[in-house]
Specification:
homotetramer; alpha+beta; Chorismate synthase, AroC fold; 5-stranded antiparallel beta sheet; 16 strands; about 20% strand; globular
Chain lengths: ~375, ~375, ~375, ~375
């Protein structure tokens, strides 16, 4: 099923950019978990004003409504938890030309071939970035379950328009470190890097162009021994799910591609005893050996390509007439979606980690009292 | 299931490094397909001599035996096709210390936690690189089905020990281009780059160390419209399966991580009409928009970390006594597994592409007569 | 996932008896299919009056709203199709004693153990028969796709309170035969049998008791060759899904349990040539050999146990105090749910058959123009 | 995948009647479990002599070889456990006419349509009853894990050729009761019923005909709370898997079809306190409410149709020439497969119960020391 992932904790996303509603169904979470509905919203529409494109203000209309899955006490009851977000603007307009003139970098053309021209082209339909909102809601529910067990997930903009942020310390990143970027206006560790990034975003906007970035996400508190060999390891599950976020074109764990430039003697993480526990002195593995967590911080980075919707005229084809044509994408588009993708990456990682813990439940820690 | 992947074409790998046999079961392929058993073997053991560590000589004992799945005419009969490779050296030895002294960079420690100390430690058990042999056999069967329909897959060492090979032309790579590296002693496009790579491998061996690399794989002939949005797209399936190859720490498509440094106006692939067909003028998307093939060459790169088994003394812990200790990994180990991983990447890509085509069968082309 | 079934056409049900809404997400149907929303409603609540317990009047509030999955032309767009039905009475009441006093024959006790007491007990929660409404909606969408391809599904009350209806002719049942029972006030072939059944239902109601029944469902127009051997055959998929309807305790195909009393010479269905096509002279197999359709009518029967909620005092336990107690189930309860389960069986069969056809798409016939 | 079942404990069967080998891969069992390979064999071929068709002598050549999945201590190591049985007679003969003359009651015709004539017709290919041997082996491994935790499974011939055996007491069946039938020459509770059954089998053989039967299987020791609502309940999983045994045409739980003839006041199982524990006074539910175990004995019955291969001439079609023809099935065929299906039913139930326990692992009891 194209729009679902997860083995035990299964997340199924539904909706199109301009359908009556978008939503998500999350099945398989533990029962008896409180759900704080406040943090489930996640900004999905382009920013209302061009002034703070990186800001992520809560917008009331994007708060998901919980349709089911809670007991009368408001805790999870074991049944699927479904949430929906009503779309307020459901009248398609200005999209007729997208049916015949596919936008470069978008799924307009491939969806048209895949579905014989029957896809919903308005606002990207089911391929819209708006579908990340239900993902955030699902992730929010899962992250609360994890947090209650001492597992924290955080992400930041590791790189944007060729500007590098600092990185999480892969060995000793703390809960505070993980939470800090998300609490800022712009989700970076180093504010000076953030300032430069915003300058480049502004410059791209001024030129009707766009920029991309890299998001780094880390999780701490994961017990060792979660995951499985070969195809159901943490890396496999995380990668499969993370490539479901629109615009992701690369995923790497720990040192990732840089590991391929290292010697084994540099890349191998020595095992050490710390406070009676087995730890690693370095963390090039990103907390995963053979698909299974080793107890070190889990570190993953995802590459976000630049926004495909840009104002500059682009070459495309007129599918109806079979000839070359030019396309100018109308409407206000965000010159960089990477900042808004930061909480989406956290959400997806949260869903996958809870799924991995629930699929191997001896490893699910007790809730901290 | 940790050792299976695929929705319609399902590949299930079994075996341990020193078990009686290793093997694979492939279910869901089309019926009526001839199987040439010759090319199914793939070298899995370290090279017998140190002289040509990059060479991939066929070794008779690694040729898989087909147990079932063919009809009396030798064509696929629709039932699962199972293959096995007998292990000739099944007496474990010298591995007792691995139970207590986990090798840095290996799954010894995580498997021990995951399986409560009951894992098979001999030769890495189920985590051994030897398990790539059945993967190659499964891939061989799938690649033959694809080839019969004009779909070709090829890979090469894109980078090794910081030496770059040339790259496949992402727009116009030909079947000959794809086949060329695999036909050489060392799977590169540019032989001078290959010479440098081998020098660095030799140097690492001389220093009891190891190096890593990047493998680039491309596929041509894929029709447009194969795949699905969100979590069952080609990128999701390929990434999930490719991270199942031991030592893979990163996966990227098209321009991948480099795309995050581009402007949208640079990254977007303009649609053009060529010979009456829709094509892209560039191919930064690696042939995939929104998880669905666009008809351009599919391009994926995977990062292979340096071999974890190195001869230099390493820090580890004595799990039995809970103290710090030193480990010297004995035995002859390959200072770089990336060359031998090249056909494994091709195999996995072949399995996934056939699965995607079979899962959306209107897109499976007729066999060329 | 407990509340989903289907491989290619995947049906995911969500909701509880008294949650804000119940609903269903159907993924994987073909694109470009018109959806007539009229017939998607299906009565789910107990009948408003006791006068016609077998009648199935449409109630406006049970008409599902389509949230997404259609393109601007109202045809399926390839994305998941989600539907919801708002619950109007979401204030739980009178159910507190169900948390401590499990109703015999219900899932109150097992859900309490399974979910550690966190289940939603109001109205049966996720175990409520009300959840068959979204199943009907999902089935309605699938049945329309099938009908457009000449595949018809129909069901009737084969037996109720020990009264037998006539049976569908397993060899020559027609589309008219299949449609007839559902068009009546009471879904039987033989109206005199129906009259007797209703008498027994009335008698059970008068005694605050309940009765059960058997539903027979048949499908015609299925091409031969759909299904698979062993565990993914039509029988496997149908049985797995049909046992998801509350109160189903048995499933049989063709002659079913009666086949076990036959000689092979009686049970084997001889192959014959009719009008140039391969047919069977009899149909004890119910249209399925080795899990694969043989082109004959598909025939399945499901046993529905008597309604568990009865007015007579029953023995149960007080879970809070760990002592024996007596329970009187309050509220108006339907003395027989079998009549209302008839369209649910049709719906589930419709979903499974479309899934089987889509999972082996060469067998999906073209839509009739 | 047609030949696999199970979510966490996944059983994948491979092989054809006359392929080099048949086998099974079992993934997801707990690690550290001893495997007694003795009881894994299960007779699969027709009995060597006609004298004791009901006997199940161990035949050396059918003992499965364990290929992998054990650690050097012989305990499960967490990796897939694969077993194979070599076929000694792999030269197909006398089967050419089956390609053109499908046997009534067999999958010859449907497989031919499904696989475009490429199926392996020799001995039924992948549809052969011989494939139940690997199922028995897989079940044997799972049953040992269950037994170690106090969960026992046993089956008997509940009915054969219209002769009824006694039934397991659904409320108080003991481990001894469950084990008794399997320890006899003929798997019944009541030996006089067994004598009559054998007479009818002999009579059918004498008339070149066959008879069918019903197998009843029960499990005790299952904790309450195992399973899930709707489509992943115990009934759903058991039914899906049991219909994978060749010749099964019906599955019912507890009172099953007979429940549909009861009043609710008769069918509902009252909850009672016994020895401080919640139990049921009766067990019409077969130990399952709402898909979840209630702690009572689990009771399931499966209908086995009469052997399709009979010596009397039968009508069939000549697919090559498209005309009516007559078929005489050659070779010695068992006039009743039901007795030999008894351990197969136990095996499948064992696999499913372990899977259900492992998929909800808090419910997997500790191994008894």
């Amino acid at each position: 099923m194209a729009s679902s992932f997860g083995q035990t904790v299964r997340v199924s996303v539904f909706g199109q950019s301009h359908s009556a509603a978008i939503g998500v169904c999350v099945d398989g979470r533990p029962a008896g978990e409180a759900v704080d509905q406040g943090p489930l919203a996640c900004v999905i529409a382009p920013p209302p004003t061009g002034g703070r494109p990186w800001a992520t203000p809560r917008r009331e209309q994007d708060a998901p409504e919980v349709l089911c899955g809670l007991n009368p006490q408001g805790r999870t009851c074991g049944a699927p938890l479904a949430m929906e977000i009503r779309n307020t603007n459901t009248r398609p307009q200005d999209y007729d030309n997208l049916r015949t003139h596919p936008r470069p970098g978008h799924a307009d053309y491939t969806a048209s071939v895949r579905y014989g021209g029957e896809q919903d082209p308005t606002g990207g339909g089911h391929f819209s970035g708006r579908l990340t909102a239900p993902l955030c809601a699902a992730g929010g529910v899962c992250l609360q379950v994890l947090e209650r067990r001492g597992i924290r997930v955080g992400a930041h903009l590791s790189r944007l328009a060729q500007v590098d942020d600092a990185r999480f310390d892969p060995v000793s990143v703390s809960a505070e470190d993980l939470a800090a970027p998300g609490a800022k206006d712009f989700p970076v560790i180093d504010d000076e890097a953030g300032r430069l990034m915003r300058e480049r975003i502004d410059r791209a906007r001024g030129e009707a162009d766009s920029v991309g970035g890299v998001i780094e996400c880390a999780a701490i508190g994961m017990p060792a021994g979660v995951g499985a060999p070969m195809f159901d390891g943490l890396e496999n599950w995380l990668a499969r799910a993370l490539f479901g976020i629109p615009a992701v074109k690369g995923v790497e764990f720990g040192a990732g591609f840089a590991a391929s430039d290292l010697r084994g003697s540099q890349d191998n993480d020595p095992f050490v005893i710390e406070g009676g526990a087995v730890r690693c002195a370095t963390n090039n593995a990103g907390g995963i050996n053979g698909g299974i967590s080793n107890g070190m911080p889990l570190v993953v980075r995802v590459a976000i390509k630049p926004t495909s919707s840009i104002g500059v005229p682009q070459r495309t084809v007129d599918l109806a007439r079979g000839v070359q044509d030019e396309l100018v994408v109308r409407g206000r588009h965000d010159p960089c979606i990477a900042p808004r993708a930061v909480p989406v990456v956290e959400a997806v990682v949260g869903c996958v980690l809870l799924d991995a813990l629930m699929s191997n439940p001896a490893t699910l820690p007790e809730a901290l009292s």
